[in-house]
Amino acid sequence: MAAPQMVSAADALPGRSQPVLAPMPVHEVLGLPLDEVPPGAEVAYFALGCYWGVERLFWETDGVVNTAAGFMGGFTPNPTYRETCTGRTGHTETVQVVFDPQRVSYEELLRLFWENHDPTQLNRQGNDIGTQYRSAVFPVDEEQRAAAERTRGEFQENLSAAGYGEITTEITPGQTFYFAEVEHQQYLHKNPHGYCPVHATGVACGPRP
């Protein structure tokens, strides 16, 4: 089966001028407003499939001080979840990770990224199919970009040695991050019996709002 194709900018949904998440809520686990970056903290953006499990993976990581689920990498301004599900926004489900570099390095976050999904799957993760589930790293500066590309090469060597295919992960400069609706923020904390490929091996995402 052919992989889903990326929508063009001309064919993308128009979106809206106002964010879909307003006012900004507080993180259900970490206690900060979702858009807060404390002094000394840094920001990273990762897409590795269903963002429910991805967000929990990172908020449970020591040194991560804030997380949020949202969208990046496409064309539609302020997309809704439903719009992104159509594949016509160009965005992929992305988690914003705010971390204390004195406690956890960006390279350690990259290790979690590479090890917790299949980066050789093009525009899908498991049963979640579409460009909105594509694997991506969105570095915010040259240092992050270099680290992402270096670790991609190292991980590819390991995959190739084990007989696996080529990594399809997109590494492009960070763009505007659009926060998803409140029901998608810390979803697996609010819905502890929900499923997602990350933290629920072999089980696709459960019923979505």
UniProtKB/TrEMBL annotation:
Active-site positions on this chain: C50
InterPro entries in the record: Met_Sox_Rdtase_MsrA_dom, Met_Sox_Rdtase_MsrA_sf, MsrA_MetSO_reductase
GO biological process annotation, one example: cellular response to oxidative stress
Swiss-Prot/TrEMBL catalytic activity: L-methionyl-[protein] + [thioredoxin]-disulfide + H2O = L-methionyl-(S)-S-oxide-[protein] + [thioredoxin]-dithiol; [thioredoxin]-disulfide + L-methionine + H2O = L-methionine (S)-S-oxide + [thioredoxin]-dithiol
Keywords, in A-Z order: Oxidoreductase
Gene Ontology MF annotations: L-methionine:thioredoxin-disulfide S-oxidoreductase activity; peptide-methionine (S)-S-oxide reductase activity
Pfam families: PMSR (PF01625)
Enzyme Commission code: 1.8.4.11
Enzyme class label: oxidoreductase
Residues annotated as domain Peptide methionine sulphoxide reductase MsrA: 44-196
Coiled-coil residues: none
GO annotation, cellular component aspect: cytoplasm
Role summary: Has an important function as a repair enzyme for proteins that have been inactivated by oxidation. Catalyzes the reversible oxidation-reduction of methionine sulfoxide in proteins to methionine.
NCBIfam families found in the cross-reference section: msrA
Family: Belongs to the MsrA Met sulfoxide reductase family.
UniProt name for this protein: Peptide methionine sulfoxide reductase MsrA
Lineage, top ranks: Bacteria, Bacillati, Actinomycetota, Actinomycetes, Propionibacteriales
